[in-house]
Specification:
The chain is α+β, with helices and mostly antiparallel strands. Helix content is 29%, strand content 29%. It is built from eleven helices and 23 strands. The strands form eight sheets. Strands 1, 2, 3, 4, 7, 10, 11 and 14 form an eight-stranded antiparallel sheet that branches. α4 crosses α5. The longest helix is centred in the last third of the chain and has 17 residues. The chain starts with a helix and ends with a strand.
């Protein structure tokens, strides 16, 4: 699913567009024991509760595609009878009215979920009458020919509110606040089936993780039986390792800066695209070749790539490049520069030591104090630069 398709489903979680038929839930205490179940027709809930649930469901479809929102495909072997895929299809067909299927679903989640403390598993069934599109992209609500029938699973921590004082409006006094258990916004969940190309795709789902490190790996691998992708942080670590190993002695400041600038430029050019910018193995190899990697090191690049990233693991440019800052870090000093001004930073050897050199142009402040302008002496050339050694 791309960000436009995700946004289209996310818009259904409002009172105006709501088509949720049923909501079910299971509360689990800190010992991992099921303590309470709920089963309701969603539209029968009080309006105040509905709005709070809408906020939770929208959060489950929020974040960056490829970082917090991960498109997963079911391998063919994971779609057999008795699998999670089969269970989800039967739950959808039952519209969450089969208590045996619900119990099985909750038990499977509990077996593979890595979460401390109390939490709430929410599961909703909804239908979306997909409006057609005219040639200019406008929606044709009277031209729908497909209904998107889906489930959304949302898992929220439940935590005891902090102790404190509160104002009792009836008694007109300040008193100790009663602590209660608060359902927080979700940390993980998934949408099934996926809404790909504005149509139902029963072979895929959209997985949500608040944590970009994909801490719920067991839920993906053992319950859903999908291939675990590289987490956002792992993609960056993998790419950095490939750059260091492939460039070798050529992994200098200028080469790394050039790689950063090229990727940042490509991200800027594609920022309006619905799909994230994915770097293929061939593109990574080409990028390294253009920035100093010799043929000897490139000869085993493919094996090195598959060992580090896996043969089918995508690397997203947005996960490996920070377009908001260009950072240089030493054991003692950290220098951050606007990416568009990275060319101002140079490397020089001064007194036999490699140094970073930054021009001191315009107003310069140290701890908020403006420095007097540097003046060039007539008889002696003065270096107008900071040297970070």
């Amino acid at each position: 699913m791309n960000k436009k398709e995700i946004s289209e489903i996310k818009k259904q979680f409002t009172q105006e567009h709501c088509a949720i038929t049923r909501i079910c839930g299971c509360y689990v205490d800190g010992e991992g024991e099921r303590k309470a179940d709920m089963k309701e027709a969603f539209l029968s809930l009080p309006e105040e509760e509905m709005f709070k649930y809408f906020e939770i469901f929208r959060k489950n479809l929020s974040g960056t595609v490829g970082k917090n929102l991960i498109n997963l495909e079911f391998p063919l072997a994971a779609e057999n009878e008795g699998s999670a895929h089969d269970l989800l299809l039967r739950l959808r067909e039952s519209r969450l009215t089969d208590d045996v299927l619900l119990d099985t679903f909750y038990d499977k989640i509990l077996e593979t979920l890595d979460m401390e403390g109390s939490f709430l598993i929410l599961l909703i069934h909804s239908v979306y009458d997909i409006p057609g599109k005219s040639t200019d992209g406008s929606e044709l609500f009277d031209a729908s020919d497909e209904v998107y029938d889906y489930l959304l699973c949302t898992i929220c921590p439940v935590k005891l509110t902090k102790p404190g004082l509160c104002y009792n409006t009836e008694a007109g006094v300040i008193q100790n606040r009663t602590r209660d258990w608060l359902v927080e916004l979700p940390v993980t969940g998934f949408l099934f089936p996926a809404f790909n190309d504005r149509s139902t795709d029963i072979h895929s789902l959209l997985f949500y993780s608040k944590d970009a490190n994909l801490s719920q790996a067991r839920l993906i691998e053992e319950f859903l039986r999908c291939v675990l992708p590289l987490a956002a942080d792992s993609q960056k670590e993998t790419f950095n390792a490939l750059v260091e190993e492939t460039l070798g002695d050529g992994c200098d400041f200028e080469a790394v800066k050039a790689i950063h600038e090229e990727l940042a430029e490509r991200l800027e050019e594609t920022k309006e695209n619905l799909e994230p910018l994915i770097l293929s193995k061939t593109e990574v190899r080409s990028l390294l070749s253009e920035n100093g990697a010799d043929e000897e090191r490139l000869s085993d690049f493919e094996a090195r790539y598959e060992e580090a990233a896996g043969s089918g693991a995508p690397i997203l440019a947005s996960n490996i490049v920070n377009t908001r800052k260009f950072e240089i870090r030493t054991p003692d000093i950290v220098v951050q520069v606007k990416p568009e001004q990275a060319s101002l930073v140079e490397t020089r050897v001064i007194d036999g030591r490699p140094c970073l050199v930054i021009p001191m142009e315009g107003q310069v402040e140290v701890n908020g104090i403006c420095l007097a302008p540097y003046i060039q002496e007539e008889q002696e050339e003065v270096n107008h630069e900071y040297e970070y050694r």
